[in-house]
Amino acid sequence: MTDRIEKQILLRAPRSRVWRAIADRGEFGTWFRVALPEGTFAAGEKVKGNILHPGYEHMTMEVDVVEVTPETRLSYRWHPYAIDPAVDYSSEPQTLVTFVLEDAPDGTLLTITETGFDAIPLHRRDEAFRMNDRGWAGQVKNIERHVTETR
Prior knowledge:
This protein is of the alpha+beta class. The chain has a single domain (4-149), classed as Alpha-D-Glucose-1,6-Bisphosphate, Chain A, domain 4. 30% of the residues lie in helices and 34% in strands. The protein contains 3 helices and 7 strands, in the order E-H-H-E-E-E-E-E-E-H. It has helices at residues 15-23, 25-32, 122-149; strands at 4-11, 34-35, 46-51, 60-69, 73-78, 95-104, 107-115. Strands 1-7-6-5-4-3-2 form a 7-stranded antiparallel beta sheet, covered by helices on one side. The longest helix has 28 residues, at 122-149. The mean pLDDT is 96.
């Protein structure tokens, strides 16, 4: 599939703990490596912060929050792999990132899905997909460490 990235992980933490790591902007920023303003995500808002991941500190992450259903689902839209500061990505379609939490034996099943890559301009679609697929593989490990090491 070229339009959808999906990562799933069983987190050995209560659903409320996983939700806090996703919905609280400070906690999200800690494991995602982005400096976000304090507070919790709210549907309809635009949230922006500086990326803290080494090599990307000159970049800003900006998301348009779509849905916040407590302890169940959070989704936002963004421009995938928009890393060239000389390019204005604002007219490009955005992908949709969705976090879904489900109860599971011994913890919480977290599914992260990013869809909409087929609408990204052809000249950057493959790289955006490949880099975000690799990025989400790392982020599921980051959130796992975060929720199990910081209660």
